[in-house]
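Database export, one record per block. Field names are fixed; values are copied verbatim from the stored entry.
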Amino acid sequence: MRELKVVGLDIDGKRIICESDDPHEKFILRADDRLRAAIRGEKSAVSQSQPDAEVPSVLRPKEIQARIRAGASIEQVAEAAGVDISRVERFAHPVLLERSRAAELATAAHPVLADGPSVLTLLETVTTALIARGLDPDSTNWDAWRNEDGRWTVQLSWQAGRSDNVAHFRFTPGAHGGTVTAFDDAAAELIDPDFARPPLRPVAPVAQLDFEAAPPVAPAEPEPPQQEQPKPARARKAKGKPAVPAWEDVLLGVRSSGQR
């Protein structure tokens, strides 16, 4: 049986670092209830098995940073390791800065087209493509992570209407800013210099309609003045004419007024 000696505590303060006769060979001993009972000399507690007790997995700082560098978020690593987010944040911060710097360098690289690297940078090309599609280039987000082969994958995300879109590029650092190649169809369409073809997820302007306001009524054309119709002439009242005496009255000598 090999003998170990205590060297110190791990960075989280919950595990004990031990080593054997070889100083290059390290061991980690978890400070659980059984170890505390053994230190106090409680044999019954040491011999008691705890098969139902689940010990959360604790990742080492290098493992945390490796997962963050590969594209995982702080919340994903904390959930997978079963630890608090605050523990992961302590080791993730420098790696997140590294990822942000890689994405920034990739925007200054030159897209590789069919006839060779473009004169414009990736940022200039993407900005031109988004403006041609009626989108706001300032509302984009850039991110990057390192693959298992050591190369960087750069992600561009933007919103068109109500849909979220992403495009991925492969970034290769080098002279004059390096180069980037399209990794998916969305990335290939963004760096395509032919902006005259149908755009990627276009956004058509929506007319603002006011359904409450009544539509304007065109002013009525003025009617032509009506000519005054001549008033019908009033029938003149005929003046009374002297009555013509009857023939009998003439013979009898009777006047028109009825006097004789």
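Remark 1: The longest strand covers residues 163-172.
Remark 2: Strands lie at 5-9, 15-19, 26-30, 110-113, 116-117, 141-146, 152-160, 163-172, 179-182.
End of record.
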